[in-house]
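Methods, example record. To illustrate the input and output format used throughout this study, we show the complete record for S1-like domain-containing RNA-binding protein. The sequence lines were provided to the predictor; the line carrying structure tokens was produced by it.
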Amino acid sequence: MNKLQAGSIAELRVERQAEFGYFLTDGEQDFLLHTNEMTGEVKEGDTIEVFLYNDKEGRLAATMTIPKVKLGEYDWVEVVDINPRLGVFVNIGIQKDILVSLDDLPAFKSVWPKVGDQLFVTLKIDYKGRLLGQLVTEEVVEEIEKEATFEMDKQQISGRIYRALKVGSFMLSDEGYRCFIHESQRRQEPRLGEHVTGRVIDVKEDGSLNVSLLPLKQESLDEDAEMIYAYLERNGGKMPYTDKSEPGDIRLDFGMSKAAFKRALGRLMKEKKVEQKGDWTFIIKSE
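The corresponding predicted structure is encoded as:
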């Protein structure tokens, strides 16, 4: 008989009652089923199906709750705690929260998930025999994804980020489509596990989608103009930026391209809300 380990689903016999629940056995090992982990009536001599996990002391314990995430099986689970030194903890449906190690998370903590975000994970056993969460791989997503149709072009789409890289973000849509958001198609990098909404800008031959989180040009123009005007108001009605400023400086302070900046600034000047003098832009004060 193979030795049972964390993450196993097993049928065990109820051996005896204990102070805080029951001890179960497979004939070789005993496992505590705590009262809090019982979902129905239990009595000595019964054979019940349980899921095995590591308790706070690292010992194997049992629960009658069979989680939706299992060894080799994936699902979305909620992030319930963040530990910068260890990683993030997720709720798979049992009393014990499961760690997704920082080794599996993005190098930059700015794109780590927040509490309430959801990660697409399975379970794994590390070299110490501990049960951990493991993020989905690109190979697995390619196996389970739905194939998009060309009619989806320009449609709005929502989903969660399952992989975060500098070059772009990978999203699995609510419907199951595999999506890529290039770094040029986002104002800021989404968090791993964050739910975002964008629009389809390309349907690829392999059935995946390219998605943009940027607003349409007219909507973007309004938003960019408002952002620039608000910046001016916060800085005493002036700023050391004009339509001749360097693209890198504009990107750093406003998070937009020079072309978008020039369009928005041109609109403000056309509406006689701002004016340029030398290397500066000023709010035009109404008389």
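Annotations derived from this record:
The two ends are 89 Å apart (CA to CA).
Residues 84 and 109 are 8 Å apart (CA to CA).
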